[in-house]
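Supplementary Methods, section 5.1.

A reviewer requested that the exact input to the structure prediction be made available. We therefore reproduce it here, unchanged from the version used in the analyses.
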Amino acid sequence: MAGDGRVIRVVLVDDHQVVRRGLRTFLEVQDDIEVVGEAADGAEGVERTEELRPDVVLMDVKMPGTDGIEALRRLRELENPARVLIVTSFTEQRTVIPALRAGAAGYVYKDVDPDALAGAIRSVHAGHVLLQPEVAGALLSQEEAGHGGQGRGNALTEREREVLALIADGRSNREIARALVLSEKTVKTHVSNILMKLDLADRTQAALWAVRHGIGA
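The structure derived from this sequence is encoded token-by-token as follows.
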């Protein structure tokens, strides 16, 4: 079972039926993961995610019609809480980075080892961010260019800096709450304030900002 005792509910979004079938076949043998739905393009993926409210969405990037990046943007606008893990055959930064900036919690390649895929699903469900070093470095450079450096950090309270450091360390809200002896609701409030003050869109960007400016990991 997942860390909180619940099965992780997953939706698969990929325009290739054989890929969806392969993912489903493997994931169905995992005791703590359940595939609750599938979609063949980004628009359908958004609809299924809104309908089924899964914990994690496995999303392809390149799909006909509405692609994965646009689907991510729509889910963000809808404030859907599902964590999106990009599953892609494209390794270029110009493909992966826009997906991360649109709100993905990380990405894996379609030739990923099955056990590593299950681990990735569990990791993003727990609130972690999955980045490869070369992509993280490129994102750091973009965030530095676009957000004005350390000055924004002066607006953070000491507690917010503590929370930010733990985000950079890959901790989920639950883990941060335990570490700082706070309620999860209070941690969520701190995270929202951090994103607002730093003018960032999500935890991925917050973690990268923190690392770039020497806070946390």
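The radius of gyration is 17 Å. These observations are discussed further in the main text.
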